[in-house]
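Lecture 7 notes: from sequence to structure.
We start with the chain below.
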Amino acid sequence: MEIYPAIDVLDGKVVRLFQGDYGAATTYGDSVEDQLSAWMEAGARWVHLIDLGGARSGEPDPGLWRKVTGRGVSVQAGGGIRSVEDVSEALDCGVTRVIMGTSAVWSPSILEEAIGRSDPRRVVAAIDVRDGRAGGAGWLDEGREFDRVVEGALEAGVTGFLVTAIRRDGTLSGPDLELLGKVRLLAPDAEIMAAGGIAGMEDLRNLAGAGINGAVIGRALYEGTIDLRQALARYEST
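Predicted structure tokens for the same chain:
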């Protein structure tokens, strides 16, 4: 299971939201580069970069991508990437893999075109679920039934999903294994990454035991309830 330490950025600061609420952001640092260095020093081979401002506005910041690419670590980036042109620009900036949520919800044809111009392994569909619905637009819209979103993404050629339980995001209350299991049934052959609620090593063991391919860890790293070196040593080769 791959470990993805998160760097969420809002107004130039490294933050974590609580349940997707932009008004409930906790700041953990003023430098994206310093946070990247910390995760790299701990041995991370991937980082999970989210442009929260871009997610809210629909206009991602290529300058943010350039701050973390070309540093010897693979970058999975999301936040406001809603067009084929956005995908191309991110990849040209050195992003390894892009995350598309709004397009997965409302415009799977854009996913299909982005995959056709790049590679299925470089485009991930974000399934961000609250009350059974997958939301887009920075989690600010009404969303659609998540099973329909998964099915549409699969038809578009998606092979990887990032599944976030919004009500658990930033809560350290544990991952939503039931939701992840439902997505696995819908997409038995896909790569599935989990986000939202991961609090400790036991959560990682549960995810690995459930056949989840990756874990995005945010607040647990910043609050020290998971040690990144320990998590990487345990899971990066399994």
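Points to note: The two ends are 5 Å apart (CA to CA). The chain has a mean pLDDT of 94.
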